[in-house]
Every structure is written in structure tokens, then in C-alpha cells.
Specification:
- The chain has a domain of 323 residues.
- 25% of the residues lie in helices and 13% in strands.
- The chain has 13 helices and 16 strands.
- The chain has an eight-stranded mixed β-sheet, sandwiched between helices. It has a two-stranded antiparallel ribbon with strand order 2-3.
- The chain is globular, with a radius of gyration of 21 Å.
- The protein starts with 33 loop residues before the first helix and ends in a 13-residue tail after the last strand.
């Protein structure tokens, strides 16, 4: 197996030095490997089906999950006339959409709201931090049964797309960055996996080794994390140890050398056809170039931000160009980079919102300039909202009753706002949008019938959107 040097650190890189970039070190059920992922084509929903491209207006999806639950009333649904304990510290500013205001800490996003659809009434009953509801559309779970990923879980959207054999075959179809959800706590959170469809449909998880200027003092002391996700190594291939790689050379040049050596050796002859396909994908130019940010001008790197989130989003754009169908960015890293704002809500937002305000407009402008926005659906959301009333620790607690979803491109309307909340942004007044509705909408934009069913472990047909209906009001 090819191993690439990492560094022994805590938090985001809670992985040993020698295994820092090893897919095998990240497996969960013993089968979460890219070779198994590639076997998806043998188990497509339609026997004998050949890989196909999405048929809807969206050919690719980039989903940014703000892990923990972003406070909607401090971002996209401010209530400036509400009592102080409800309205919080921030003031609203005007946007490029007449009559629409958002938080003052997001001036760049305010300028691109004329390209966006804003849903203000994302509402469900799943009170947990797992991205389970966001990625699957199922909100009937609970922490007791669904806190940790299991084989019986519903599959994530990207996993379903792989099961349907949707997407290119020369790049990873489904990628999760910067690592698997829960890695900062050494646990596997439910949501992104193949679940009862099988581990072969899991995403390709990248790994990361971010740097921070100082250590956080507590769970609500945010410190910006800098760095970028890295490709994992190749699992089930002949061993190439980290010790044989030269730290003085670039990562890609070292891989090039080792690939060349392996190709010239007899070891390559012993690979299975799946291993050879994996080898071609992860060492092929399209995949490696997508992760090689040295190809980007400094001004582009700076525009997105050198933090882990800007780098992840820039790689996501490069993956879209390479042909990847579904990419998720899970906002969880060392430096207390999370959105579970039970304390110091406003202090944490003063760190998080400028990063979000930098990277999202950079992506949208970039996709526009490259002619990719109409075919790329960008979704920014979290698994829930936050309580209307600020607590004694200057935080906001869990509130799945109401939250937001921000969408760009992929056949959605521009400059459109759906849904209205009450005076405290506590409950939808009209047009609540469920988790199933959100997932159904994403499937619909990709050209996948959201009423489609897939078999669970008991071979029962389960709806891929769990009864959700596409939100037709937001479709252009």
C-alpha cells in the first residue's frame, strides 16, 4: 500500500504519522476502500448498466455542510426589532436583491445574493449533529440509534448516485473533504456512507494536517486552521512506505517517481483489475491535478483563502472540472472549527463568517467565469438552526425547527427567497422545507427521480428521499 508522510498531531489529523494518508487506516466496516467503491459498476441498480452522466441541469453538486448548526437568525434571517436576547449582536445589511438583508459580517455574500436562492424555512425533527439528515434526507433518527454510522443506515446522496452508476469513471465520483465527519472526536458520524447499500458506495475521504497559530483554549475559542486536504494513499496495493519518500521533494513528484517504479516492476502484474483501475484513477493526471493547488495562481488561492475551507472549496471546483459528481465539505477541523455554538456564539461567528464570506463568493465568481455555474449546484447549509433566545453563555442551542439553506446554480432561481419565519425566527410561517424535500430537490436537479427506491438490508424498497418532494418554487 502506498503511504505518504503525514505529521503526528491531534484534532483534524488524529492519525498516526505513517498512516496519515492511508485509505486502509480510515476504513470502517473493513470494506471502505476505493477498490470496493469502484465495484459499484457491477452492482448498479439496473443490471448491466453502463456509467452515465447526470441528465438534469446540474451535472455536479458541491455541498458545504456547516457542522453543528449555523444560527440562521444571525446570518440570513435577522430580526433587528426583536428583543435583545433574540436579535443578537449583529446588524443587517442590504444585498443585491432589493428588500433582502443579511448579516453585516457577510458583505461579499450580500453582493452575490442576486445569484442565489435562499430557503429560510428548513425545518425538521432530527436533533443531532450528525450530517445524517443533510446527506440522506431522513430525519426520523436519534442519537441513540444514529449517532455512529452503521451498516443499517440510509445511504447518503453521493452513495446513491454511485449505486445508480452515475458519473465519470476516470475520477472519483464522490469525494468528502477535508476528512470523514467526526474525525476530530475520533468517531464516525452517520451520513456520508453507503449504509445498507454497502461500503463500496462510500465516498473517497481525503485527509488533512491543518496548522493553527495557537491552540484553542476551550471548545468555543475558534482559531483559523490553514492547509488543504490531501489524497489518501492506495489501499490493497504493494507497499511503498513513507520512509522511502523524500521530504525535500514535492508530493506529486514523489508520487510520480513511485508510480514509475511500480509500473516498471513485476508487482504491478499481481494487481487485480479493480486495483489497476484504482491505480489509474488516483495516480492519473485528472485526479492528481485536481488536488494540486500549486497549479493555481497565488491570487486565486488568496481569493478563496488559504484556510482549510477555502482550499477545500477550490479543490471542489477543480474536481467539478475533472468530472466528479458529488463533493461534500464538512466544516469540522482543529482550531475549534465547528458551528455547534452553545457558547460564545458571536465570538465564533466573528471568526467563521469572514471565512465563509471569502470562499463562497470566490467559488461562485469562479464557476461563472468558467461557464460552470449553470451546471454546478452549490448548497450551503447545516443540519439545523439555533435557538431564538441567546443563553447564559452567550450561545444558542440546538433548534431543528428552523434553519436555512443557500443554493446557487444548477438550475435554481436567482435572487429568490422562499419561506417566511415568525418574529423570532423560531418557526416557519409558511412553506416549511423538510430534509427529504431538500434531498429530493438535489436529486431532481441532477435528473434523478426522487421517488426512486433502493433495497435495505431486508430487501425492502426505501425511498431515496424518504417521502420528500422537490421544492419546485426554486427551480428556474
Amino acid at each position: 500500500m502506498l503511504r505518504i508522510l503525514g505529521h503526528a498531531r491531534s484534532g483534524c489529523d488524529r492519525i498516526s504519522r505513517r498512516d496519515a494518508l492511508t485509505v486502509g487506516g480510515l476504513t470502517m466496516f473493513g470494506g471502505v476502500t476505493l477498490p470496493n467503491l469502484l465495484r459499484a459498476s457491477e452492482h448498479a441498480a439496473v443490471p448491466g448498466a453502463v456509467p452515465r452522466l447526470p441528465s438534469g441541469p446540474a451535472k455536479s453538486v458541491i455541498l458545504v455542510n456547516l457542522f453543528g448548526g449555523p444560527p440562521h437568525q444571525d446570518m440570513f434571517d435577522l430580526k433587528p426589532t426583536a428583543p435583545e436576547k433574540v436579535r443578537g449582536e449583529f446588524s443587517p445589511i442590504s444585498t443585491s436583491v432589493p428588500g433582502l438583508q443579511i448579516c453585516e459580517l457577510m458583505p461579499n455574500i450580500a453582493r452575490i445574493m442576486d445569484r442565489a436562492t435562499l430557503i429560510r424555512t428548513y425545518s425538521h425533527k432530527y436533533n443531532s449533529h450528525n450530517p445524517y439528515n443533510v446527506l440522506t434526507g431522513f430525519d426520523g433518527g436519534n442519537d441513540r440509534d444514529n449517532y455512529f454510522a452503521t451498516r443499517a443506515d440510509h445511504p447518503g446522496m453521493g452513495a446513491v448516485l454511485q449505486y445508480l452508476n452515475l458519473g465519470a469513471t476516470d475520477v472519483p465520483r464522490y469525494v468528502s473533504m477535508p476528512a470523514f465527519p467526526g474525525y476530530t472526536q475520533s468517531l464516525r458520524r452517520a451520513g456520508p456512507y453507503g449504509g445498507y447499500l454497502g461500503a463500496r458506495y462510500d465516498p473517497l475521504f481525503t485527509v488533512c494536517d491543518p496548522k493553527v497559530e495557537r491552540e484553542s483554549k476551550d471548545d468555543y475559542d475558534p482559531v483559523v486552521a490553514y492547509g488543504q486536504p490531501q489524497l489518501p494513499s492506495l489501499d490493497e496495493l504493494p507497499s511503498i512506505t513513507a520512509d522511502r519518500l523524500d521530504r525535500r521533494k514535492s508530493l506529486l513528484s514523489q508520487i510520480d517517481e513511485q508510480v514509475s517504479l511500480l509500473e516498471r516492476s513485476r508487482a504491478g502484474d499481481s494487481m487485480t483489475s479493480f486495483q489497476q483501475q484504482v491505480f489509474r484513477i488516483l495516480t492519473g493526471s485528472k485526479t492528481r491535478l485536481a488536488f494540486d493547488l500549486s497549479q493555481e495562481p497565488d491570487e486565486v488561492r488568496d481569493r478563496y483563502g488559504r484556510h482549510i475551507w477555502g482550499s477545500s472549496l477550490l479543490i471542489a471546483r477543480r474536481l467539478v472540472e475533472a468530472g466528479t459528481t458529488f463533493t461534500t465539505i464538512h466544516w469540522e477541523s482543529k482550531g475549534k472549527q465547528h458551528w455547534d455554538l452553545h457558547a460564545n456564539n458571536f465570538g465564533m461567528l466573528k471568526s467563521h463568517l469572514p471565512q465563509l464570506d471569502q470562499m463562497v463568493p470566490a467559488l461562485i465568481h469562479d464557476l461563472e467565469e468558467r461557464g460552470l455555474l449553470d451546471s454546478t449546484l452549490v448548497v450551503v447549509m447545516g443540519e439545523m438552526g439555533r435557538t431564538p433566545v441567546v443563553n447564559a453563555q452567550s450561545g444558542r442551542d440546538h433548534w431543528p425547527q428552523c434553519g436555512f439553506s443557500l443554493l446557487f446554480g444548477g438550475g435554481t432561481k436567482r435572487g429568490f427567497v422562499l419561506g417566511r419565519t415568525d418574529a423570532q425566527a423560531a418557526y416557519p410561517v409558511d412553506r416549511p422545507v423538510s430534509t427529504g424535500d431538500m434531498v429530493a430537490t438535489i436529486y431532481h436537479q441532477l435528473g434523478v427521480n426522487p421517488a426512486l427506491t433502493v433495497p435495505d438490508l431486508s430487501h425492502r424498497p426505501i425511498s431515496i428521499s424518504h417521502g420528500g418532494e422537490p421544492v419546485h418554487e426554486i427551480v428556474a
